[in-house]
Amino acid sequence: MRNFKPTTMALLTSGALLAAGSVQADRSEWPDNFTVGTASQGGTYFVYGSGWANFIADELDVSGGGEVTGGPTQNLALVHEGNAAFGLTTMGPAADAVNGESPLAPGLKMDNVCAMFPMYETPFSITTLADSGIESISDIPDGARIGFGPAASTSDTYFPAMLEELGVDFERRNGGWSDLGGQLQDGLLDVIAFAAGIPIPAVSQLEVQTDVNIIEFNEEELEIIKENFPVAEFSIPASTYQTLEEDARAVSMWNFAIAGCDLPEDFVYEVTKATMENNDRMMSVHRSAATTIPENIKHNTVLPFHPGAARWYEENGYEIDEALIK
Question: Which domain of life does this protein belong to (predicted)?
Answer without folding.
Answer: Bacteria
